[in-house]
Design goal:
Layout: E1 3-5, E2 10-12, H1 23-27, E3 30-38, E4 41-42, H2 45-58, H3 67-81, E5 86-93, E6 110-117, H4 124-127, E7 130-138, H5 155-166, E8 171-175, E9 181-184, E10 188-193, E11 196-199, H6 210-222, E12 226-228, H7 233-237, E13 241-246, E14 250-257, E15 260-261, H8 269-282
Parallel strand pairs: 7-8, 7-14, 11-12
Antiparallel strand pairs: 1-2, 1-6, 3-4, 3-5, 5-6, 8-9, 10-11, 10-13, 13-14, 14-15
This protein binds pyridoxal-5'-phosphate (PLP).
Pyridoxal-5'-phosphate binds next to helix 6 and strand 13.
C-alpha cells in the first residue's frame, strides 16, 4: 500500500491529488528527495533533508516548512506505514499558479511525502553484479539545470534508462560534454584501481549523493584510499572494479559495461567490503541484513 502525507493527513495514494495548475505538474518546477528507513529508523535523514533544501534553493525556491515540521510529517507517515524498511519520497512544489513560467503567483507551496514498504533490488544484482550501458546521451550540463539539484526534471535520466534497457543493460552511465563519466540514472558511480576507490568530482556534473558522501567518509575509517577524480570512458573500462551507490541500491557491483566484462566479470573484493559495510550500517545489530 502506498500512503501519502499531503500536509493535512496521511491518505492512500489513490486519494491524494495534485492540482492541475501546480507548477510542478506544468513545468517540472519541483524538487524531491528519497530516504529509506532501516528497522523503522530513517537512514541518513539529516543529509537528505539538507539536500532537499539545497535543491530548492537552486530553483530560487525557499521551502517554507521548518526541519521540525518536515520531520514531524515524516514520522506521521512512518507511523501509518508501520513497516521496518520503508521508502519515502519527499516532493516539494511551488504549488498552483497562473499559466506562466514566472512562479510569482504561486502562493501555496506543497509538500507531499509518499511512502511505501521498501522494495529491494534482486539479490543476484549484488552477488553477480549489474550491467550498465555507456549511453550516447549526455548528462545535463551543469551550466544549464545543474544535476546537483534533485528536481522534478528527470526526463533525460528516464530516457537514458530506456535506452540502457534496450541495450540489455540494467542502468545507463552518462558522460559529460568533456567526455568524463558523471553518474548512472539514479546512482553515483565509482571505480577501484589498485585497491583505491575513485568517484567523479562534483564539478563534472552529478548529484552529490548522500550515500556517496557517507561512503567517502567510511573509506577513511576502513583504511581504504578514496578520492574524487575525473574518469574517462577508457579509465572506467580498464578499472579493476566498478560499482554504483544510492539510497535504495546501497553499494551495487557493476560487472559488465556495454559488451565487456569489468575485470574478471565478478564483484571484486573492495566492492564486497564496501557493500558489507553499508549493510552493516543499516542493520547495526546484525550483520545479516
Ligand atoms: C541522479 C542521481 N545520482 C545519484 C543518486 C544517489 O544519491 P543518494 O545516494 O543520495 O541516493 C541519485 C539518487 O536518487 C540520483 O537520482
Amino acid at each position: 500500500m502506498i500512503l501519502v502525507h499531503t500536509g493535512e493527513a496521511v491518505v492512500p495514494a489513490a486519494q491524494a491529488t495534485v492540482p492541475v495548475l501546480d507548477h510542478g505538474f506544468l513545468y517540472g518546477d519541483s524538487v524531491y528527495d528519497v530516504v529509506r528507513t532501516a528497522g523503522g529508523v530513517p537512514f541518513l535523514w539529516e543529509p537528505h533533508l539538507a539536500r532537499l533544501r539545497r535543491s530548492a534553493a537552486m530553483l530560487y525556491f525557499e521551502l517554507p516548512w521548518s526541519d521540525e515540521e518536515i520531520s514531524r510529517r515524516l514520522h506521521e507517515l512512518l507511523d501509518a506505514l508501520s513497516v521496518d524498511d520503508a521508502y519515502v519520497r519527499l516532493v516539494a512544489t511551488r504549488g498552483p499558479g497562473p499559466i506562466s513560467l514566472l512562479p510569482d503567483g504561486c502562493d501555496q507551496p506543497a509538500l507531499y511525502l509518499i511512502g511505501r514498504r521498501l522494495i529491494r533490488y534482486d539479490e543476484s544484482l549484488y552477488t553477480d553484479g549489474c550491467r550498465v550501458a555507456l549511453v550516447p546521451r549526455l548528462r545535463n550540463d551543469r551550466r544549464a539545470l545543474d544535476p546537483s539539484a534533485k528536481t522534478g526534471n528527470y526526463l533525460n535520466n528516464m530516457l537514458g534508462l530506456i535506452e540502457a534497457r534496450r541495450a540489455a543493460a540494467d542502468d545507463a552511465l552518462f558522460l559529460n560534454a568533456n567526455g568524463h563519466v558523471t553518474e548512472a540514472t539514479t546512482a553515483n558511480v565509482w571505480i577501484v584501481e589498485k585497491g583505491a576507490v575513485i568517484t567523479p568530482p562534483l564539478p563534472d556534473g552529478l548529484l552529490p549523493g548522500v550515500t556517496r558522501a557517507w561512503l567517502l567518509e567510511r573509506c577513511v575509517d576502513l583504511g581504504i584510499a578514496a578520492c574524487e577524480e575525473s574518469i574517462t570512458a577508457a579509465r572506467l573500462t580498464a578499472a579493476d572494479e566498478v560499482f554504483l551507490t544510492g539510497t535504495i541500491k546501497g553499494v551495487m557491483p557493476v560487472t559488465r559495461i556495454d559488451q565487456a566484462s569489468v575485470a574478471a566479470g565478478h564483484p571484486g573484493p573492495v566492492t564486497k567490503r564496501l557493500h558489507a559495510a553499508y549493510r552493516a550500517a543499516l542493520a547495526p545489530d546484525s550483520q545479516s541484513h
